[in-house]
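Example record

One chain of 285 residues, shown exactly as stored in the release files.
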Amino acid sequence: MPLDHSLIGVESVPHERSWTSDDTLLYALGVGAGTEELAFTTENSADVRQRVLPTFAVLAAQAPTGRRLGDFDPAMLVHAEQAFELHRELPVAGRVRTTSTVTGIYDKGSGALVTTEARAADAESGESLITSRSSVFIRGEGGFGGERGPRDEWAEPGRPPDHTVTYETRPDQALLYRLSGDRNPLHSDPAFAARAGFPRPILHGLCTYGITGRALLHAVAGSDPARFAAMSGRFSKPVFPGETLTVSIWVSTRTSDGGATALFRTAKEDGTVVIDRGRAAFRPA
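Predicted structure tokens for this chain:
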């Protein structure tokens, strides 16, 4: 069964999701935060107010489309790109009402790229909270003669990064991150990972994304999640739990009141780039 192109442009029915303080603490631990980031990993430290890592927005805004994309082997699906905008700081606990829309199905030859957009509003006030955009690549579903989709003209600045942040991941990082909701066996089951062509389970792309978001938050936004406005990037290579990640950040504009935009890239210790075409935006201090 080919992919269902009739889904494009059809908004889903609203989906409600809530989260608690425990959920945001667990998420922070899942993306590598620890004892040096108590505002995100504890709720009862003296003189430390609990806050939420901005990249939790991607999980908070997740919603089903309500219809199947088609009949394909789920082992052939990988997360390709992720972006989000935060319209205000995320609350420690909250409830949102989200609608999602498939915005495109593009022919990449060896596979299909499916893009979606989700909009999450506070369930009580109706205030817009998150806009999330993502894409998945489904191997073997291309070749249907469709458009290839828009190109991103991202280019690395011709100068050294303004910030370089290195984090080590844990060998069991995927087992911890999956407790935030993504139970895809690609990240935990060696047999499933082998069927997908990997020697062992890989780290969730959104875990790598969250680790990268931590680097951006601390390096550019002064560790203040209220200043974190937007982030986008493409997943270019898999990461295995236990590998070391380095985030290179180029601040492209900076205003006198502390606002900024930045380009970034995340790579493994051997130089393999795992998130490219990275962009982020930050509000004034």
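Notes: The longest helix spans residues 205-220.
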